[in-house]
Specification:
65% helix; Non-ribosomal Peptide Synthetase Peptidyl Carrier Protein, Chain A; 341 residues; single chain; mainly alpha
Length: 341
């Protein structure tokens, strides 16, 4: 037993003293050192990539905040422009104040002349034509609206007349926006709104029973009910869910088509995001939206920018490497048979 141990020890000492074995041991040590260095470099590279991802996410968040800031500034600028426009219109209205005073005075004199006539008296014109009694004129408004005088400095809203063939809701919305600038009481709103009627709409207004409209709410409700058949049907959230990205359709085209429809729909932003993701074809952008769901369509557009650029570059690269098509222009002249002289 002792002899066996001594023999093994002697062999190990001989192996250590052997140059070939020393070279092998040295090589093993070098390989171990290389492995250790590679592991450290891999860890450093992983840390660096983690930092880059973190910085990219911070930059994307910063860009998102900047976009919200720009939208807020644009809204403020639009409000300032509307205020300046209202101010300019008010100045023009003040310039016409004298003319309006003359008109109101003439209107007062006309009313006094009408009320001074007997109830059953018929006015006769210069050519003997019969005129309508004030009592015979249609009066759809109640007496409190009739008695309300339009202020002399009131700025009459500029709006396209409604003839009875357009969308009543769009006409009502346009009138309300103009009245936000002009102001005025409920009775003034009734009179100004009736002044926008022409054609069929004016005939309908004159046929409303006398003293049956006590407020602008009632007038607008009757107006919408009468011309509801002309309402333009806007898309709904169900129509938005049916939008799909076509086979081979670019992300830019699909995003533009989707946003063109969603802007006409009034709904929650999360429903827009879900419908957009549902209609996407399987792609790296689709996977990124599944991993990290965006908060709004603005966030979707920001994140889609880099993918759209990548798609455009790939398309240009494929087009550049695509072999040119050889067109064979075969004409009658080329097929003509030449005969020898």
């Amino acid at each position: 037993m002792r002899n066996t141990r001594q023999t093994t020890k002697q062999r190990e000492e001989e192996d250590v003293q052997n140059p070939t074995m020393q070279h092998i041991l040295h090589t093993i040590q070098q390989l171990q050192e290389e492995v250790r260095r590679s592991a450290e470099e891999a860890r450093e590279e992983q840390e660096r990539l983690r930092e880059e991802v973190k910085m990219s996410m911070e930059e994307a968040l910063k860009a998102h905040k900047e976009l919200h800031k720009i939208n807020h500034e644009l809204q403020l600028q639009t409000i300032q422009q509307l205020q300046e426009e209202a101010k300019r219109r008010s100045e023009k209205a003040r310039e016409k104040q004298d003319l309006l005073k003359v008109y109101r005075e003439l209107q007062r004199i006309t009313e006094e002349f009408r009320t001074s006539k007997p109830k059953n008296m018929v006015q006769q014109g210069n050519h003997g034509s019969l005129q309508m009694h004030p009592q015979d004129e249609p009066q759809p408004f109640t007496q409190n609206i009739i008695d309300e005088q339009v202020p002399p400095s009131f700025m009459v809203p500029k709006i396209t007349p409604f003839s009875g063939t357009g969308d009543p809701e769009l006409h009502l919305m346009a009138f309300r926006v103009q009245m936000l600038i002009s102001g005025g009481s409920d009775a003034v709103r009734c009179k100004m709104f009736a002044g926008t009627f022409t054609g069929i709409a004016l005939r309908w207004f004159n046929n409303i029973p006398d003293h049956s409209i006590p407020s602008f709410h009632v007038l607008s409700k009757k107006f919408i009910e009468k011309f509801a058949v002309n309402k333009v049907e806007f898309p709904t959230i169900a129509d938005l869910v049916d939008i799909r990205q076509g086979e081979g359709e670019s992300l830019k085209s699909y995003l533009s088509r989707f946003c063109g429809v969603s802007i006409k729909i009034f709904s929650h932003e999360n429903l827009f995001v879900d419908a957009f993701v549902k209609g996407l074809q399987a792609s790296s952008f689709f996977e990124s939206l599944i991993r990290d769901k965006p908060d709004s369509m603005v966030d979707v557009q920001i994140r889609a920018t880099s993918y759209i650029k990548e798609e455009e570059l790939m398309r240009l690269e494929r087009k550049r490497h695509q072999p040119p098509k050889i067109r064979k222009n075969i004409t009658k002249k080329s097929l003509r048979r030449y005969e020898p002289y």
